[in-house]
Design brief:
This protein has about 120 residues and is mainly α. The protein contains 4 helices and 3 strands. It has 2 domains: about 50 residues, no CATH class; about 60 residues, no CATH class.
């Protein structure tokens, strides 16, 4: 499908203003760009961004993939990292902070880590 050049330019401008992809998609649709073109452009952009900016993995980090509301656990679903946890410091990095579910899971992880630290103190 050919994508309108004005749509591409507008999307680039919004992305350089640090709008998350979901917000860019909503803005473009609100501005009246054709839905098929917007969806195709945003999907392609997301794929490229995920390819170019992978989370910084090493043996000291754990990545958590969250199945967000509306997503399907499809056979070919590519895992994405939503939260990155540093094993040494316990620091959480939210890769998808625009997703409400990411915050909920991050808070649960923090609580679990706090409980684990408390029990570790008693065993040492």
């Amino acid at each position: 499908m050919d994508i309108d050049y004005n749509l591409v330019q507008r999307a680039q401008m919004l992305l350089t203003l640090d709008h998350p992809l979901t917000q860019v998609r909503e803005i473009l649709l609100r501005e009246g760009y054709p839905q098929e073109q917007v969806v195709e452009l945003m999907d392609a952009t997301e794929e490229v961004l995920n390819y170019l900016v992978p989370p910084q993995y090493d043996e000291n980090k754990i990545g958590i993939d969250i199945l967000h509301p509306g997503e399907e656990k499809a056979q070919g679903r590519k895992p994405m990292v939503d939260i990155l946890i540093d094993k040494r410091s316990g620091r959480l990095e939210l890769i998808t902070p625009h997703q409400q579910e990411t915050w909920r899971v991050a808070n649960e992880v923090r609580k679990a880590m706090k409980r684990q630290r408390k029990t570790m103190k008693y065993h040492h």
